[in-house]
């Protein structure tokens, strides 16, 4: 039977755009109570309002930089206070979605920049373990509590210009696998959702605001949407409590592999 998320607490990192924002709206539509974090607070507030309009039982926002331990700990202290509010009907975190991350640059190793490499490892790898370590004490007492990490097909292979991003997402995959071993017996479910090409702000960030380069990534093909991902996240979190969706790869039909993309002529 589908698990209900009504009035359950769901924490989403990187909720200011793309997958995270769509997930806030989708979990909101299930009647969940949302704890949303990212660096852009104005964007988070808009997402929170949209989530409430979609049906969320509440949506709260707080600044979060997953690449900074002090910021993560402050964010989770804030989340804990919200969850432990005596007026809360279900004072447990039901779902943790480690989504914050992305790619910075597409340079070869020979031309790569330290700042880009550090940002990718900090957010996609260390961000996941930092947030999970801090939030774990909040999880676990509710049946079907889940940690869902956002990986990528980049964690399952490599492409030129993607060395560090692919390494980071491969790191996320191994962290997910280790966590599943470490949490065996706790009842907490651990999974990773690993998408292929999806049109969000991902490429705009990767190409440092160059909209033409970002558009080219999706030219002539039908990419995934943020809604495809959020729908899948809700599906993973609402499986019966004894079911763990371990690793799920989701790609557009037009993408057979990284560079193997079917593009219609303009
Ligand atoms: P977006 O750029 O639209 O969203 C990225 C989100 O991550 C934003 O909300 C951003 O918020 C947040 N974020 C980035 N760095 C940090 C940080 N240091 N601390 C807190 N939040 C941060 O892209 P997507 O929605 O596409 O990306 C979401 C996840 O999906 C990423 O992990 C990405 O690697 C992964 N992914 C994306 C794919 C795609 O093709 N789009 C495919 C496979 C995986 P803010 O800037 O406000 O902090
Ligand atoms: C994003 C998908 O193929 O651009 O994680 O690396 S890809």
Strand-pairing-aware structural class: alpha/beta
Bound molecules: NADPH dihydro-nicotinamide-adenine-dinucleotide phosphate, 2-hydroxyethylsulfonic acid
* Radius of gyration over all CA atoms, rounded: 18 Å
Strand content: 5-15%
Tally of DSSP helical segments: 8
* Number of discrete domains: 1
Overall mean pLDDT: 96
| Cα separation of the termini | 45 Å
| Main β-sheet description | 7 strands, parallel
Low-confidence stretches: none
Number of strands: 7
CATH topology: Rossmann fold
Can you identify the CATH class? Alpha Beta
CATH architecture: 3-Layer(aba) Sandwich
Which terms summarize this structure?
266 residues; Rossmann fold; binds 2-hydroxyethylsulfonic acid; binds NADPH dihydro-nicotinamide-adenine-dinucleotide phosphate; 8 helices; seven-stranded parallel β-sheet
Explain how this protein is built.
The protein has 266 residues and is α/β, with parallel strands linked by helices. The protein has one domain (9-258): Rossmann fold (3-Layer(aba) Sandwich). It is 40% helix and 15% strand. It contains 8 helices and 7 strands. β5 (146-150), α5 and β6 (189-195) form a beta-alpha-beta unit. α1 packs parallel to α2, α1 crosses α8 and α4 (114-135) runs parallel beside α5 (163-182). The chain is globular, with a radius of gyration of 18 Å. It binds NADPH dihydro-nicotinamide-adenine-dinucleotide phosphate and 2-hydroxyethylsulfonic acid. 2-hydroxyethylsulfonic acid binds at residues 152-154, 162, 196-197, 258.
Quick structural summary:
By secondary structure, this protein is α/β, with parallel strands linked by helices. Helices cover 40% and strands 15% of the residues.
